[in-house]
Structure formats: structure tokens, C-alpha cells
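Researcher: Quick one. two chains, 819 residues in total.
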Amino acid sequence: MSSKEIIVKDLTFRYKEQKDRNAIENINLEVEKGEFIVIMGPSGAGKSTLAQCLNGLIPHFTKGHYSGEVIVRGIKVKETPVSKMAKEIGLVFQDFESQLFSTNTKLEIAFGPENFGVEREEIQNRIERILKIVNLEGLEDRPPSTLSGGQKQRLAIGSVLACMPSIICMDEPTTDLDPIGKIGIFNIAKELHKDKDLTLIIIEHETEEALNADRIILMEKGRIIKDGKAEEILREVELIEQIGLMPLQIPKYFSQVSSLKKEELPLTYEEGVQKFKELKLQIDEEKYNEILKREEERERSYGDVIIDIKDVEYMYPNGTKALDGINLQIKEGEFLALLGHNGSGKTTLAKHLNCLLKPTNGSVIVYGKDTKKSNVYEIGNYVGYAFQNPDHQIFADTVYEEVAFGPRMRGYSEEEVKERVAEALKSVDMESFEKEDPFSLSKGERQRIAVASILAARPRVIILDEPTTGLDYKEQKKMMQLVKKLNENGHTIVMITHTMWIVSEYAHKVAVMKDGKIEMYGKVRDVFKEDEKLKNLFLKTPPIVNMSNRLGETFLSVEEMVSCTRR
Amino acid sequence: MDMFLYMDKDSLLHRLDPRTKIFIMLISFAIALMFSSLSILLVLSAVIILYGYTGKVLANLKRIQVILIMIALMSVILWAFTYPGTTRIWGPITKEGIIYGIAIGIKFDIMIISGMIFLSSTKIEEISLGLMKLGIPYRPAFAFSTAVRLVPMIVATSYTITQAQKSRGLDLDTGNLIQRIKKYIPLLIPVLISIIRQANILAMALESKGFGYSDKRTNYLEIKFTASDYVFITIAFLILLFAIYFKIKYKM
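Model:
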């Protein structure tokens, strides 16, 4: 029995507050030693619940209706306290900010071994070894708060590794990270996988990163719906899309333009380029030129320059230079994406647009007003700013009250407020939610409420700070369709994001930032044409862009390329 | 933005045993509470500032200067009106009242500064280790040090939330007192919810790293008394004895 690392038998769990259905239902699963498994599924599929069942947080920490059995390395989880299980299986959480609590990196790593009564010298050895594995050498005396997001998550992984478990389970370790941070985590995963005695389980909803795994488990609504080899599952384009995940672009493209059998579908863009030539497919230049023409027309349709940023420098009170000579003009009706890593200055720049920050040098003119002589309250009439985490602003008992907050603060009559709330909720397709409690809604819905509460001020420019972070593909698409609609209705959009396919498919223009400067700027198609240059900035363009670039033209989405492919 | 109080410097004060620093902090509290005489409190604050200076941590006081000034001001205003003095300056305000107010303000400021110096020069892990060595069990000691750690986390979250609500039109600067207090609700609720959520994750992360595995826990950090600890403790103790003697002899 104990030859398997993990055995899950008929596991069902329901949270106390959950009424309609079980969080996970009838899960049966066996994991061999040394496997690298990726668990994928849309929000609410039960992935995190399953992970917490493995190390005993469920049912010991979070209680509910539990039936079935989980055996990890021969130990019955239900009968063993979490702190004992920690020796066998380590769990890393998505939220790295809340996981770290020590004064410096060294002590963070030492915490686990200290609990297990490991001798001091051995702890010292482990610290040195772990720092190497998670690539944090030289940072041992730094307080975790001063590390970058990627470094923090690597430290969180290191602090779990220090307990020397045989199984590591990471719950969406890359969701809150920028592209560089993501790469760092996946490199560690690859390194760890080389250790044949270590079993690795990663929960992800980004399909592309699952390519490295041995095995993928697809979950939906609390059940395992597919379990198999990574390459096989990733070719299930339709199924993946149907349950609300993003399918790999290359197999999706070929499943639409060719009659290849599933097992023949290429997975990576390199394979795609080859297959394209093999199948003698061609790009219809005429149709491609039409797309370019439409884009130029759109370019001409923009209105006046409404935001004018001139030679802006910004220095934080502690002396760090966050912006260094920014020049940028935004025209009415544009849809601009700001790309770049955390710390590149995107958010600092965006905060200048609604006057949350004022430039140290240079000027920002918004609708003819110099922000240096204005304030958030006044500029707020023109520019709305939706913060990244909707939970940082939701406070009211009902959706109506929540959205009404802005207009009320501005002193509008109750009649006007009502009208504005109705209009804002209609814009985000949530008209029937007025009486709902915002806290009971899903993350995607809360995100839309946050956008609605910005819209209620009727701003002409909307700044969105990572509006899709933490949402699954289906929710992301819904959110972006909403943003697109707002843009088509005349709103100017400025969006900060890390998600390359979203920039590719939705934005008109893109500014790539690095070290407080704008490194690249232009139409998305023109910027994404230079995928090598972007790659050097650690920004990975979507596979369809890479493939089409190799074939001579730049396509921004699968649909676009399919429409221009001659078979 | 770095929200943590601890300043990682190499100084005599940093190298002291946390128990010594706890002891010195408590003595400074005791002396500050014993006296209300302006001159004695001024001397005491000079000694404490000097103590903080040896640890190169006085820069942290800048961060709380507003609080320090506010406390002093409040105390002066309060006592100026209410202290039963005789030398009237203007209306009910007396000279004695103002002096007494300054003294009380300094008394509280001394305690805050002394606590601040302790937190700025002592790692959280050292604090809990120090408390454990003083006989406090691990769990309460850990809970205390975690509470200290949560403060900067709360401040950082509040900062983001304030910016988010300001962007939605929250204007904290207008309205009467009640209106203003009401305006803090959109800040308080998201802050509270964020903290509860973060604390929950922290608790799960702790258990997942073997917190509470057994009562025998090793400590990676080592603390022990050195010569300088004995010197500091002796000096602090002598000052305390002298203060008590002074208090009894002159009935201050």
C-alpha cells in the first residue's frame, strides 16, 4: 500500500458555509514517487481544496463535511496533525505576502527546521543549501519585505523545502507574479524535478507552463474530469476551452485549419512553424492587408490628445527614482496597455494620470489641467482608477451601496446617484445584482463591481491596474470583453497588465517599461513583431505571435490567423 | 516602502541580549512613571536618546514624530486648562498647568521612544526568544512577536486601500466630525477583511511548516549575556536605585 506516495480514495469535502454543492466530490487519485503533476481547472474547480486535503489543513484547520480517505506516504492524513504532515508534504500558497513573517531570509528558512527540533549546525547547512536551490544567495540578511515578488515566492518555497518533505505542493505559485518572477518559479520546479525522489504537484491555470509536467489532472466543479500525460491532455483543445481554461494556441490553430489527428497536433510554436510548412499552408496577403488597413483607420479615428506627459521624473521620498524621463501622449479613444515588470514604473506612471502622484520634474496635463495644480478629487471627474485587488475597496452591504459611493461622495442628488448606479451596473452586465452582498460574489464579479464603482463617476479615461490577475480564462475573457465594450463606447483605456495574450488580443497600443523608462512604444502589432527584443526584456509574446512572426507576418490572435490562412 | 521598525545595523545596542534590552526598557518605563518633574524627565529623556544613539536607530523616531508631537501638544492643552495652578496667564490657563502638561507629554513620549528604540534594535525572533528565556512559553511569546509584525502589514494595506478609495472620490478633509468619522468606514472594512484573510493564510502557512510539532524546539538564533550586557544592566539598575532613593528622600 505504501509504495504510492499519495493515495486518495473517494474523497468528498464540503465547506461549512457551502450549501449548493461539494467543494470536491469523489476524488480518486494515486501519485507515484518522483512524478511532476500539474492540476488545472477553472476557479471553483476544487484545486486548492484538494491540495489542502493532502497536507491535512482540511479537515484539521478548515472543518466541514469530510468523507473518504487520504493516505500520504503511508500516513492517514485525517488522523495526523498538520504539523506532523509537514514533514512529509510541504504546501506553498499563492499569497506570498502573507506567508512570510520573519525578520530576514535566513530566519524564514530556519523556521520549519526549528519546529522539528533540528540541530543548529544542521539548520545552518540547510539554509546554505536552500538558498542555492531557490537562487537567493547573497540575500540571506535581507528582510523579506524588501524582496521582489518573485524572490518572496522563491523564499516561501525555500522555507517549505527546508523541512525536507518528500512531496511539494504549490498552490498557484505564479498567479500574482510578473513574467520574470514566473520564469524563476518554473526554473526552480524544473530543477526540483531532477530529484527523482521528490514528488512535485503544482496547481496552475496557465496552460502554457504545464508543458514541462509529466502528468496533468483536469478538474471541474469538484471532480477530476481528465487525468493523463501532459502532451495528451494539452492536445484536448476543445475540452480545455469548454471547461473555461485557455487552450494552447498552436494546437488550437492547427485543429481549426487542418484535419490533423489529435496526437499529430504540434504543441510549441517551433513545431507549429514546421507543421505549417509541411502542410503547405499559406497566408492570404490580401486579407492580412485588410486587417492592417482597418487598424490604420482606427488610428485615424482617435480624438485629441487628452493626456500629455512631458519629461516626467518621479522620485519617491526615500530617494528611489521610479520614473526617469517619461514622454507619452494619450489620445481620446485609445486603448493603451502598459507592460513591464514589477518595479519598472508602470503603476507609478498610472498613478500620475489621476493625480494620486505628482511628478517631481516635468508635467502631466490631463484634459488641459496641470496635475501639479490639481488633486485626485478634481481629476477624478475625468480619470477613474480601478485598483488591482477589488477587495481593497469593497466595503458596502449591497452592490448598489458600493457603486453609489463615488457619486454620493461627490454630492449628487439621490436621483442622479440612482441613475448613475443603474448605468454603471448595466455597463458591467450586472444590473440584477443591486441587492446582492458584494462579499458573496465571485472574484470576477467583484472585479466588475469595482469597475462599475469607477464608472459611476462617469470618467472619460479608465485606468485598470491588472484587472485580470487571479481570474481564470473564462472570467478574464468576460472582463476584457467588458473593457473592450467600454472602449468602443468612447472611453479611453489605460491598462496595466502582465498577461501577454490580453495585450495581444485587446489593446491598440502598448508601452513597454523598464527601470522607469519607456523602452518600446507603438501599435501592438508593431511592438509584438519584435518578439526577440521583448524576450530579452523577459516578456514572452503569445505562441501564435511567435509562430506568425517566423512565417513573415504578425498575427495577434488565433482567430485572426485562422481567418487569413489559405489551406 | 519599508514599513518595518527593525533597523538592521551593527551596533553595541544590536548585539545586546534581548533580555537586557527588555529590562532597560522596563526600567525606563518605571522611572518615567515615578516622576512628574520636568527637569528629571528631561534628564531621563537625554539618557534614553543617548542610549538610542549608541544603536544608530534614532532615525526611526522621525517616522513617529507626528505622534510624539501630537501627544505632547494634547497633554499641554489638556493640563493648561485643568491643572489647579495659581499663576494665571490667560483665562483659566496657568503657568503651572503648562509646565505640568509639558512634563506629562514628555513622560509619555519617553515611554514611546524607549519602546521604539527596543523594537528598532531587536529582531522579532530575538524578542520572542528573549521572552522564552524569561520563562514565557513559546506560543504566547510567538503570538506577541507576530502581533508586532502585523502592524507594518496593516499600515501597508491601509495605505493601498486609502489610495483606492480616494480614487473613487473619498474626500477625508471635509465635513464635520461625525461626517468625517463616517468616512473612515470605507477604509476600515476592507482593511479588516484583508487582515483577517492574511492572518488566516499566515496561520495555515505556519502549520504547514510544522508549527507546534513538538514542545522541543531548537533555536537558530543564539542569545547569551556578554560583558556589555552586565555593564548595561548594572548601570540601568543603579539608575533605578538612585531614582527610588531620590523619590523617597525628596518625596517628589
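The beta strands of chain B are 88-90, 93-94.
Researcher: Thanks, that's what I needed.
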